């Protein structure tokens, strides 16, 4: 791989052992993927924040980095943590977990990384620009960056996105190259897609059946940012899909040559129904979990409009997960106050998957996110069901 003199100097340790190790990681990944050179990236979004997922191993990693007092070279933000950083006691987080979680965030802060603690940086003022190279690691955000915004990122891991944050570099391979961004399969969407969950179901179905491929969806009638994030998250979870195109809606669709699409598959009402059927509610629900990916202002307002004149059933908890930025929005502050009075909990900084409380305290969870279903179902003691937000809310309020 070609390296500039400056990159070689860093690799040789002239700016310290830690930075050299960070660059070594990027070079290694580049070599494995036949990259010819390193390129600059404009931002990094870093996963590996929740103490639930990273454990104590992360502290030796921080020890290594901190030896040389490293600071990030580009704007860098964090993925959700394992708890709401302000209301973790109310969430029922134990003191050991909260202590470790606070320590982890503090370590990231020391490096100059912003504690946005959200998987939807693009909803809080960090939309990537068309064509810009970035190093993001939350899988749904990666797919949004590539597909919805036309930015370029591979699906980075926590350590590699951190290495990019500290060096400002990544290896040029995969989705950074235009030739790798072409769709491989045409999906004719014959089913009607209306709710966020419908888009999530399409994504889940595609990922499960065609995982790893880039699809070109035809027949989708509208694609709001909320629908795109539902689609992105589901596909990334069930099939590691990091990019897709949607006719008329995503920025690179015009470059697609229809004759290059040799395979066509139909997504019909039958496929849609079969996914809903598979995750159909079977037991008495004890938790409704909304906000995977983190809920936007629009989603919180939608929920409020349904529940405002109604009462929540007492045997069901409702949790909505969002970013701190959305939660402190003036309009949302007043809505959340009213929802709190109704017993609805709106948390920031965390989510139903990366926080321990959902798994520990609930056995029958319903959500409108296929990604949440995918990950929460890994715990065999938890039953997880899927439905549209409208249907879910209808059942739990009176
Ligand atoms: Fe975000 Fe958690 Fe879902 S990080 S995409 S809300 S699993």
Describe this structure in words.
This protein is α/β, with parallel strands linked by helices and 398 residues long. The protein has three domains: 5-178, Aconitase, domain 3, CATH 3.30.499; 182-277, no CATH class; 279-396, Aconitase, domain 3 (2-Layer Sandwich), CATH 3.30.499. It contains 17 helices and 14 strands. A five-stranded parallel β-sheet has the order 12-11-10-13-14, sandwiched between helices. The longest helix has 16 residues, at 17-32. The model has no long low-confidence stretch (mean pLDDT 96). Bound molecules: FE3-S4 cluster. The site of FE3-S4 cluster has 16 residues, from strand 10 and helix 16.
Give the arrangement of secondary structure elements.
Layout: H1 5-11, H2 17-32, E1 38-40, E2 44-46, H3 51-54, H4 57-66, E3 76-78, H5 88-91, H6 95-110, E4 135-136, H7 139-148, H8 158-167, E5 169-171, E6 185-189, H9 196-210, E7 215-218, H10 225-239, E8 245-246, E9 264-267, H11 269-278, E10 287-295, H12 297-307, E11 317-322, H13 324-327, H14 330-341, E12 344-348, H15 356-361, E13 364-367, H16 370-376, E14 383-386, H17 389-396
Parallel strand pairs: 2-3, 2-4, 6-7, 6-9, 7-8, 10-11, 10-13, 11-12, 13-14
Antiparallel strand pairs: 1-5
Helix pairs in contact: 2-8, 7-10, 9-10, 9-11, 10-16, 12-14
Bound molecules: FE3-S4 cluster.
GO molecular function, one term: lyase activity
Family: Belongs to the AcnX type II large subunit family.
Keywords: Iron, Lyase
